[in-house]
């Protein structure tokens, strides 16, 4: 019982009382500045935005956006001191979203990934994520701007992950997510193993998630 108390992980809804903590986590974890609308909308999307607490200390967050039968995973992050030590905070956040997506009959979940963060790539590939293809000139504020993308059948579940590891920052699981505006009926090949595509020194991947 004492050991379980030391490892207690709780997820909490966003409220007017803790939105400031949510904002601070985004400022610390992610290299993108989110506008006020992002935080205002985060208060009103229920299960799609959560804070993660480890022994009553707020250490992580997740934020998604529902688009018809698709889910846009915008951010998922855990403070550096609480990553890679077997606690499972990132897993708890991801499991929550996957379970909620299943209840909503979500057909696809997308993220984009910069692949230099090999630890994060390994983390996702161990959780049924698979690489797809590249989108050239996708980013406008990050150079080079290449990202990966793949149109899939609506029956497939796809997670397109953008993982960035920028020197001098203390985050590892940075997810800058951009969901495909529409799916097509053309089925693309999904890869069961990692195949990195390098562009001017920056690598990006798309990862396909299959249940």
Automatic annotation (TrEMBL):
MF terms from GO for this chain are:
protein N-terminal-methionine acetyltransferase activity
Q: Which residues form the N-acetyltransferase domain?
A: 9-153
InterPro entries the record matches: Acyl_CoA_acyltransferase (IPR016181), GNAT_dom (IPR000182), N-term/lysine_N-AcTrnsfr (IPR051556)
Provide the catalytic activity annotation: N-terminal L-methionyl-L-alanyl-[protein] + acetyl-CoA = N-terminal N(alpha)-acetyl-L-methionyl-L-alanyl-[protein] + CoA + H(+); N-terminal L-methionyl-L-leucyl-[protein] + acetyl-CoA = N-terminal N(alpha)-acetyl-L-methionyl-L-leucyl-[protein] + CoA + H(+); N-terminal L-methionyl-L-tyrosyl-[protein] + acetyl-CoA = N-terminal N(alpha)-acetyl-L-methionyl-L-tyrosyl-[protein] + CoA + H(+); N-terminal L-methionyl-L-lysyl-[protein] + acetyl-CoA = N-terminal N(alpha)-acetyl-L-methionyl-L-lysyl-[protein] + CoA + H(+)
Q: What keywords tag this UniProt record? A: Acyltransferase, Cytoplasm, Transferase
Q: Where are the transmembrane segments?
A: none
Q: What is its main location?
A: cytoplasm
* GO (cellular component) term, any one: NatA complex
The processes (GO biological process) annotated in the record are:
mitotic sister chromatid cohesion
Q: Where in the cell is it found?
A: Cytoplasm
SUPFAM superfamilies from the xrefs?
Answer: Acyl-CoA N-acyltransferases (Nat)
EC number, UniProt record? 2.3.1.258
Protein name as it appears in the record: N-terminal methionine N(alpha)-acetyltransferase NatE
């Amino acid at each position: 019982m004492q050991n379980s108390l030391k490892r207690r992980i709780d997820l909490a809804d966003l409220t007017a009382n803790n939105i400031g903590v949510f904002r601070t986590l985004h400022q610390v974890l992610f290299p993108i500045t989110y506008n006020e609308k992002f935080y205002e909308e985060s208060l009103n999307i229920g299960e799609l935005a959560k804070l993660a607490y480890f022994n009553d200390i707020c250490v992580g967050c997740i934020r998604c956006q529902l688009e018809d039968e698709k889910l846009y995973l915008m951010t998922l992050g855990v403070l550096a001191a609480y990553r890679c030590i077997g606690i499972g905070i990132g897993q708890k956040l991801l499991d929550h979203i996957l379970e909620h997506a299943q209840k909503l009959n979500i057909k696809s979940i997308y993220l984009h990934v910069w692949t230099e963060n090999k630890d994060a790539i390994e983390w996702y590939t161990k959780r049924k994520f698979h690489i797809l293809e590249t989108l050239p000139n996708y980013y406008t504020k990050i150079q080079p701007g290449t990202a990966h993308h793949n149109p899939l059948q609506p029956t497939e579940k796809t997670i397109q992950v953008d993982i960035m590891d920028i020197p001098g920052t203390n985050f590892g699981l940075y997810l800058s997510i951009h969901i495909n505006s529409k799916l097509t009926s053309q089925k693309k090949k999904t890869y069961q193993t990692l195949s990195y595509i390098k562009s001017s020194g920056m690598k990006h991947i798309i990862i396909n998630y299959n249940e």
